């Protein structure tokens, strides 16, 4: 794994870590039009309800929302169109196998600009949590918060 790169966060899928057990994390590029990049530079996007789907040897980001860029007028893009993800063939094959055989889901975690100014998407191969797993996660998070309060009050 490469050392942490400086990046400007555009969108974060906070719900993904609550709804899924994260197993493997990948970094993918996106095929975007010019108006989409300009809209992202303005910092507006939503990947909360989106997911990645392997189709015909390629991986697509479905249901992500990048709003239209105002000054572009008639040359604008479709806000919820499918967007092709750029991954290595080995990574695509691994995702295909996990989704087909093991019933895993590919969820986006973060959308950001990397140090070179390219738009990147952090994808995760994930397994869905059951209701009791979500309750355990909530209970653990609240206990950590309470521990912090206790340590702060004592120290």
UniProtKB/TrEMBL annotation:
GO BP annotation list: trans-translation; trans-translation-dependent protein tagging
First-listed, main subcellular location of the protein, grouped into a coarse class: cytoplasm
Compartmental location: Cytoplasm
One annotated GO molecular function: RNA binding
GO CC term, one of those recorded: cytosol
CDD domains: SmpB
Entry-linked Gene3D superfamilies: 2.40.280.10
InterPro entries: SmpB (IPR023620), SsrA-bd_prot (IPR000037), SsrA-bd_prot_CS (IPR020081)
Record's keyword terms, sorted: Cytoplasm, RNA-binding
Region spans: Disordered: 128-155
Compositional bias per record (Basic and acidic residues), positions renumbered to this chain: 133-155
Domain of life of the native organism: Bacteria
Protein purpose: Required for rescue of stalled ribosomes mediated by trans-translation. Binds to transfer-messenger RNA (tmRNA), required for stable association of tmRNA with ribosomes. tmRNA and SmpB together mimic tRNA shape, replacing the anticodon stem-loop with SmpB. tmRNA is encoded by the ssrA gene; the 2 termini fold to resemble tRNA(Ala) and it encodes a 'tag peptide', a short internal open reading frame. During trans-translation Ala-aminoacylated tmRNA acts like a tRNA, entering the A-site of stalled ribosomes, displacing the stalled mRNA.
Family: Belongs to the SmpB family.
PANTHER family associated with the record: SSRA-BINDING PROTEIN (PTHR30308:SF2), TMRNA-BINDING COMPONENT OF TRANS-TRANSLATION TAGGING COMPLEX (PTHR30308)
Protein name: SsrA-binding protein
Organism: Candidatus Phycosocius bacilliformis
Organism lineage: Bacteria, Pseudomonadati, Pseudomonadota, Alphaproteobacteria, Caulobacterales
């Amino acid at each position: 794994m490469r050392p942490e790169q400086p990046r400007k966060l555009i969108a974060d899928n906070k719900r993904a870590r609550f709804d899924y057990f994260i197993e493997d994390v990948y970094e993918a590029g996106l095929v975007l039009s010019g108006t989409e990049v300009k809209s992202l530079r303005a910092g507006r996007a939503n990947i909360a309800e989106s997911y990645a789907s392997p189709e015909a040897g390629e991986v697509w980001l479905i249901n992500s929302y990048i709003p239209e860029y105002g000054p572009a007028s008639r040359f604008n893009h479709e806000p919820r169109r499918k967007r092709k993800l750029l991954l290595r063939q080995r990574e695509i094959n691994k995702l295909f196998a996990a989704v087909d055989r093991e019933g895993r889901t590919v969820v986006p975690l973060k959308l950001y600009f990397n140090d070179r100014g390219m738009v990147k998407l952090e994808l995760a191969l994930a397994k869905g949590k059951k209701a009791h797993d979500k309750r355990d996660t909530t209970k653990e998070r609240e206990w950590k918060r309470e521990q912090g309060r206790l340590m702060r009050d004592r120290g």
